[in-house]
Amino acid sequence: MKKVISLVLVLAMMATVLVGCGEKQAPTDNAGSETPATPEKAIEIKIATVGNEDHQSTIAAQLFKDEVEKVSNGKVTATIFPNGSLGGEREAAEGVKLGTIQMTVVTSDGALPAWVPDIQVLSIPYLFANKEEAYDILDNTLQQELAPQFEAQGFKHLGFVELGFRHFTNNVKEVKSAADMQGLSIRVQEAPIWFALIEKLGATATPVPFNELYTALQQGMVDGQENPITSIATSKFNEVQKYLTLDGHTYAAESIIMNKDYYDGLSDEVKGYIDAAVAVAIPGQREAVSAKEEEYLQQLKDSGMVVTEADLDSFVKATEGLYKLDEVKKLVDSSLVELIMNKLGK
């Protein structure tokens, strides 16, 4: 029995030695240190835009992409999905809120008022006299005032870029004054304040997603629409619209928004790359869009559109005091409107 036990112990010891000899050692370099770890995988940001490659939203997304990849040395990459390939503006915003899309660039007072009603302050007609006034209020007032409201809804509002002053087009008649708007059906963004604006002008408001607007105009579902010159030109609305009325009823901004949980979960280093890229993209996009505006207006004229300078006073008078209407006050804090007016000296 003792011999058997001794034999078992000897065999066990031999097995242990053999296993130990078979263990693989970590590969070393010439200095004897371990091989460096695999490089950290780049952070990928999916960006949805509704417009085509020449649209203002996609220009902003492209400038952001170029800059964030540059400043991060490729640690952060971005992929743009234009042409509404991930859905219309509401779907894009919902995707960001849910986290299925990291980032989007959408019309500020379009679908976003569903979550942050006060952003509809930008829909108050004839609030800004020029772009400089708009930039100042957007960057130095509204960004700070509304950021907490966006965060409460799951969005990180990174900043405002440009769509431009909005103008009316239609395919029925030349519109020279507010009275000429009577009876027209006008596509508007899906926000109640736009219904009030169009009603004040005696027309009928019809919400249509932007990515479906060309077809709606082509088929006569609506008589007209309202958008900045750049949007009208790049979307080729001149192919299905005859008349353009330059009234500049509102200054339209776009919001660069990111999923808040996604942003908060990034390292301070990566947040810095994103913030730095946005800081470059905002003025760069505004400059690019403004530079193209006159060129696009001439293209629209050359295509055969009848371009009319509006009797602005008639439009201002027809929409005066809109922000004081009960239905509008339920949507936009009138004190916010008055804060802006006071800052503008109005």
Describe the structure.
The protein is α/β, with parallel strands linked by helices and 346 residues long. The protein has helices at residues 2-22, 56-71, 89-98, 131-152, 192-200, 213-218, 229-234, 260-264, 268-302, 312-319, 326-329, 334-343; strands at residues 43-48, 76-81, 103-107, 155-170, 185-188, 204-207, 224-228, 243-246, 251-259, 306-309. Strands 1, 2, 3, 4, 7, 8, 9 and 10 form an eight-stranded mixed sheet that branches. Helix 2 links the parallel strand 1 and strand 2 (76-81). It is globular, with a radius of gyration of 28 Å. The relative contact order is 0.16. This is Tripartite ATP-independent transporter DctP family solute receptor. Keywords: Receptor, Signal, Transport. Residues 1-19 form the signal peptide. Pfam families: DctP (PF03480).
